[in-house]
Amino acid sequence: MIKKEISELKRLFTPANCSISCICGCYVDGEKNKKATFREAFLSLPEEDMYKYFEILRKNLSGTLGKNLLNLNFPLDTEMDGGTQAQLLQLRDSHLKDDSLLDAFYDRVIETYVHTGNYLILLIDDTYDIPGRAGDGMEMDDASDDVFHYLLCCICPVDLSKPGLSYHETENMFSNRTRDWVAGLPDVGFLFPAFNDRSTDIHSVLYYSKNAKELHDSLIEQLLGCPVPLPADDQKESFQTIIQDTLGDDCNYETVCTIHENLTEMIEEHKDEPEPLILDKQQVRSLLENSGVKEEQMEQFDQRFDETAGEKAEMFASNLINPKAFEVKTPDVIIKVNPERPDLVETREIDGRQCLVITIDGTVEVNGIPVK
After folding, report:
1. Partners of 129 in the beta sheet?
2. If exposure means fewest CB atoms within 10 Å of the residue's CB, which of 27, 292, 304, 324 is most exposed?
3. Is the Cβ–Cβ distance between 158 and 182 less than 8 Å?
4. What is the 3-state secondary structure (H, E, C) of 212-263?
């Protein structure tokens, strides 16, 4: 899924656009016990409750693609009878009306979700009448081409409200507020099926994790049955390691600058595309070759890539570098350079010592004070 498709679904979570037929939930305590379950017709809920749920649902589709919003594909075996994808499809097709399927799903979540406190499992069933689009991209409400029937699952932590003093109007006084259990915004969740190319894709799922560094691998592997992707920080570390191992002793300032400049240029050229720029092994190879890495150094590239990231690993370019920042760091000094002017810094041997030489182009300030 791309940003436009995600935004299109988020717009459904308003009173004017809502078509959610059913919402179900299971409240689980810290000992993994089911404390309560419920099923409600969503449109019959009080308006105040609907707005709270809308906030949770929208948050479950918020974030950055490649970091905490991940497009996952189901392996073929998960689509066989009894597979994880087949189970989700059966749950969706039940419109959340089959108690045995719901209970089985809750049990699988409880078994695979690692959390120390109480939490709420939320599920909605919705059917979106997809409006057609004219050649200029304008939506035509009376020209629906298809419907998108989907489930959205949110897993929300439930914590005690904060203590405090509250005003009691009838008694005209402040007293200790009664603390109660409050569901927070989702920690993790998923949309199934995916809404790819504005149509149903039962072979994919959009996965959300509040913390991009903690993807809850067990949910991805066991509940969904999908391979766990490299987290954003791991992608960056793997990319840096691949460069270091490939260049070896020839990992110098000039080559790393060139790689940064070329990758920045690729990101800039791709910025107007709907899909984010993703690099596989071959594209990383081409990047290094085009940055002047020698042929003999590239002989070990495939092995280095496979060992570090995995043969079929894909990396979001936005996770690998920040095009708006360029930093040179030593144990005692950090130099931040305009990413368009890395040429102002060079390495040079002076009086037998390796030095960083900075070309002064304009005024110099120390703690905001101009100096000579």
Report:
1. 147
2. 324
3. yes
4. CCCCCHHHHHHHHCCCCCCCHHHHHHHHHHHHHHHHHHHCCHHHHHHHHHHH
195 with 201: CB under 8 angstroms? yes
Q: What is the H or E stretch that residue 178 is in?
A: none
Measured distance CA(74)–CA(91) in Å, rounded: 16
Contacts of 15 (CB under 8 A, 6+ apart): 47, 50
d(C-alpha 8, C-alpha 193), whole Å: 15
What is the rounded distance in angstroms from the CA atom of residue 287 to the CA atom of residue 75? 30
CB contact set of 310 (below 8 Å; sequence gap of 6+): 230
Task: Indicate the Cα dihedral angle 299, 326, 283, 199, nearest 10°.
Answer: 150
Q: What is the pLDDT along the chain (372 residues), one digit of tens a residue?
A: 999 999 999 999 999 999 999 999 999 998 999 999 999 999 999 999 999 999 999 999 999 999 999 999 999 999 999 999 999 999 999 999 999 999 999 999 999 999 989 999 999 999 999 988 765 566 665 556 689 999 999 999 998 777 777 777 777 877 777 767 788 999 999 999 999 999 999 999 999 999 998 999 999 999 999 998 889 999 999 999 999 998 888 888 888 999 999 999 999 999 888 888 999 999 999 999 999 888 888 888 888 899 998 888 889 999 998 888 888 888 888 888 888 888 888 888 888 888 888 888 778 888 788 887
